[in-house]
Amino acid sequence: MNKLNKITIIGVGLIGGSFAKGLKQAGLVKEIMGFGQNTTNLQKAIELDVVDSFTTDIAEAVQDSDLVFLAVPLGAMKTVLENMKPYLSKNTIITDGGSAKSSVILSAQEVFGELPEHFVPGHPIAGKEKSGVTAADEQLYVDHRVILTPTAATSQASLEIVQGLWSALGANVEIMNPQQHDEIFAATSHLPHLLAFSLVDMLNEHEELGDVFQYTAGGFRDFTRIASSDAVMWRDIAVYNSEAIVKWLKNYGLALEELTKLVEEKDSDALYTLFKDAKQARDKHIVN
Ligand SMILES: NC(=O)c1ccc[n+]([C@@H]2O[C@H](COP(=O)([O-])OP(=O)(O)OC[C@H]3O[C@@H](n4cnc5c(N)ncnc54)[C@H](O)[C@@H]3O)[C@@H](O)[C@H]2O)c1
Ligand SMILES: O=C(O)C(=O)C[C@]1(C(=O)O)C=C[C@@H](O)C=C1
């Protein structure tokens, strides 16, 4: 694909920083500019060679940019869109990496009145429990899915450019509609994160257990790694994908009630069947 002149990263943390680093390595952009509120973080991004330049002035950030990548928590997306709107060029592509898609699309609709033709909502299905620019990694997206949820207004040309950039980072791009996206990731990503946070918090609050965490081992570590994820990011996901998440929390509540009953009744046949089916499903679909 043709080299772009300028890409702007709004929010130079794990996701924005990894996107920038990967593109720099692929040599697909002449200049990558970071925008944020915290100059210490942006200075760090320069030191780590994640971006070429930075600014805290939104006008300077988006002017003459070929593509703006929003990588801020979901709760900041609308404000950022509002603030950049007066300075955007007609042809600037806007894309994002937010973990829920309907809320970002709604924000864009509210800010621009109608959905822009150069708006390509997206979500890389890759990440880690560490956040911030120091966690940025140019390999983060290699062999990971990136879901794009173009709107009816999204132009084919903009979609292809965004697709091309993710492919250059080694990602496998898939197109989905935003509602389906939000439902699927409520079940497979948002639910497990909320369960992990809730489990750790519950044990922490039960003082009668004493210093229970010193007795945890591999199982607890595997189940709760994601409870070390950023609290702002996950607060926003819970709020901005609330409807789908509540549905899956309720389904899980029913499953837990059923499991509690089986354990109470010491129903070994039913427990065995449940564990065997779950093991088979996981072993079939997930490697390690
Ligand atoms: N962490 C993951 O595993 C993961 C994976 C996929 C998608 N996402 C999504 O990507 C987005 C970014 O997540 P992250 O993990 O990179 O977070 P992060 O905390 O590492 O980075 C976010 C950056 O945005 C900055 N920021 C916050 N509000 C801002 C504002 N109003 N204006 C400018 N900058 C602002 C922060 O200072 C920080 O530098 C979120 O929407 C998240 O849902 C995260
Ligand atoms: O591996 C992790 O630590 C992640 O949290 C990544 C993960 C997930 O797999 O659920 C989390 C949120 C994202 O929106 C996408 C990916």
TrEMBL record:
The record's listing under InterPro entries reads: 6-PGluconate_DH-like_C_sf, NAD(P)-bd_dom_sf, PDH_C, PDH_N, Preph/Arog_dehydrog, Prephen_DH
Which Pfam families does the record match to this protein? Answer: PDH_C (PF20463), PDH_N (PF02153)
Prephenate/arogenate dehydrogenase domain segment(s): 5-288
Q: Does the keyword Oxidoreductase apply?
A: yes
Q: Which domain of life is it from?
A: Bacteria
Q: Iron as a keyword?
A: no
User: What PROSITE patterns is this protein classified in?
Assistant: PDH_ADH (PS51176)
Please provide the record's keywords in A-Z order.
Oxidoreductase
* Protein name (record): Prephenate dehydrogenase/arogenate dehydrogenase family protein
Organism this protein belongs to: Thiomicrorhabdus lithotrophica
